[in-house]
Amino acid sequence: MTGRAAALIYGLASYLIFSLSFAYTPAFIGNFLVPKTIDVGPDSGLAQAVLIDAVLLCVFAIQHSVMARPAFKRWWTRIMPSSCERSTYVLIASFLLILIFWQWRPIVATIWRVEGWPAAMLTAIFWMGWLVALVSTFQIDHFELFGLRQVVDALRGAAGRMQAFKTPLLYRLVRHPLMLGLLLAFWATPHMTAGHLLFALMNTAYILVGVRLEERDLVAEFGASYEHYRRRVPMLMPRLFGGGSIASKTRRGG
């Protein structure tokens, strides 16, 4: 029981750190409220800034992709409680995100700048992207996705759950609404600087690779059920008419 209580505290702490880092992210990318943003920070030469920023983003992407793979999870849970696996993934990702905030080097050359109603429209899309990303996590299982449900179940002595693969509204439009929301948030800005563009490009590349790795794992585990869903619903570009739903069992990857 002591170990289970410790796991719960660990899971709660990981979720709190994730929540704080996630809340900081729109302010960092949108350049408001916080002192250190994507366009505000220590001056560096162009080559140094590109190198540091690219390394930060690559480390973040590699951690996400490697630790989300089933083979890594099987190895990882041999040396730590399975109830803490997701919380550890979330905690490391959050620390790496904080490292990006801390060490990011702005590259402030302007790529585009718009004002008036185009700026208002892009700002609205920016916030819509964050809303889509957040809502999509609750439409599956937000607390399982970020590790809380596992540690609560472990404290209760309950067996691990198989989460229902549901297709509420957003998941009937695209298979990866979380990633769609992030793409909207990364690209929709009235003032695109070179540093922001580097951030958007590298994260877009990671997302395109990451969703294919996740889908490979889902197809390998669930076969025809997920293939059927994949044929009916587009990956990232919404199809506003048509689509469909599917009821099967799955665990969501990262």
From TrEMBL:
Cell compartments where the protein resides: Membrane
Reactions catalysed according to its record: methanethiol + S-adenosyl-L-methionine = dimethyl sulfide + S-adenosyl-L-homocysteine + H(+)
Start and end residues of each NnrU domain: 56-194
Enzyme Commission (EC) number: 2.1.1.334
Keyword Electron transport: no
A single Gene Ontology CC term: membrane
Membrane topology: Multi-pass membrane protein
Molecular function in Gene Ontology: methyltransferase activity
Domain of life from the UniProt record: Bacteria
UniProt KW Nuclease keyword: no
Listed InterPro entries: MddA (IPR054700), NnrU_dom (IPR009915), Nurim-like (IPR033580)
Biological processes per GO annotation: methylation
This protein's UniProt keywords: Membrane, Methyltransferase, S-adenosyl-L-methionine, Transferase, Transmembrane, Transmembrane helix
Class in the EC hierarchy, top level: transferase
Positions of transmembrane segments: 12-34, 46-66, 87-104, 116-140, 169-188, 194-213
Family: Belongs to the nurim family.
NCBIfam families: MeththiolMtaseMddA
Biological role: Catalyzes the methylation of methanethiol (MeSH) to yield dimethylsulphide (DMS).
Identification of the protein by name: methanethiol S-methyltransferase
